[in-house]
Amino acid sequence: MNRKQTTKGIFLCLIGLVSLLIGTGCNNLSALLTDDDQNEPETVSINADVVTANTRFGFDLFNELRQTEQDKNIFISPLSVSIALAMTLNGAAGETEQAMTNTLQLQGLGSESINPGYAGLRYALQTSDPKVTLTIANSLWARQGVPFKQDFLERNAEHFGAEISTLDFTDPNTLTTINQWVNTNTNGKIQKILDEINQDLVLFLINAIYFKGTWQTEFDPARTRDDIFHLATGSEKQVPMMTRTGDYPYYENYDAMFQAISLPYGDGRMSMYIFLPYRESDLNTFLDSLNSEDWENWIAEFHEQEIFLSMPKFKLEYEKMLNSPLQSLGMEIAFAPNGADFSRMADLEALGQNLYIGDVLHKAVVEVNEEGSEAAAVTSIGIRATSAPPAFIANRPFFFAIRDNETKTVLFMGTVVDP
Prior knowledge:
Elements: E1 10-18, H1 36-39, H2 48-66, E2 74-76, H3 78-89, H4 94-103, H5 111-124, E3 132-143, H6 150-160, E4 163-167, H7 172-185, E5 201-214, E6 225-230, E7 236-253, E8 258-265, E9 270-277, H8 283-288, H9 292-299, E10 303-312, E11 314-321, H10 323-331, H11 348-351, E12 355-368, E13 372-385, E14 391-393, E15 398-404, E16 409-416
Helix pairs in contact: 2-5, 2-10, 4-10, 5-6
């Protein structure tokens, strides 16, 4: 992975594993420090079931968020949340493992398929397109003296390429070290993720996804003009609208009452898809019918034609605690202090406490302009003890997603209600 390229978009996912009691004993984790190149398989195979599971989980999570976020901007990375939970899954057992597997839509796949599936996807998502950069980095930071299981650590090192370090969490320099890793792997877009390390923290797993995408055909800034955007409330807002006429993959569904366009980055492997409901319909009606099956069917129907395109420059910032949506999707037991089973993560008998998920926080930002797209996000999971050319004028609320067309992986998705 090339981590030296200038950022145009970053995506970060953080998992903090938290215990209320620090155990005894010490693991020598330094031997497990890994490098991506050392772990890269000789041949990369894509597990279609893992890709499909990621798509289904992404739409499941997005639809759960909509229940309390209607008529609001939403922006998430289902891939990052999925990777974060998949790494945590390596420490789960029994009913907790099954619940997490079901929530991630990975039913019927054992760890012998899930872990290699994520490893293959991680390498397959790398691109040689000079106009698009997507890299994925993972790290694991463990508190000295906590009896983590070697198998749990090695799974995340081998299949997720996680760099593993043991640190003294009482040393103030540890906070600086972890935040510097975050700063480096997001090219300074996110300078720190931790304000402090509480005494109940025992482990951090951090996933950073770096994305830079330049449009295949950029918009001319001289043609950007302020124009009206019709808000969901019925009011209007002046926003800068980018415009151009050109050939784009396009799809219109008269029954579902929407038009859609694909804006390719670079050589076209990755694209932003925008779904715009008809004026006679609305975004909520469209989203009520949106699911992973329809998504795949609709994507297959796009065909290239000349389009007059007008869309807003926009920047969204989104923050959401994901505990409730994930519990609604079937992960309740993983949040239960006395019910969760993360016995594959650490020696619970030696630790003297149970482990469970405390908080899952997701923060994200995306910016779209004439040149391309920029995105950044943070997910924190804490585990605690116990006729003219057709016109596509996106001047009203719409749904959008950034997709890798080769692996069919949805990297980001969101709604623009108020740009």
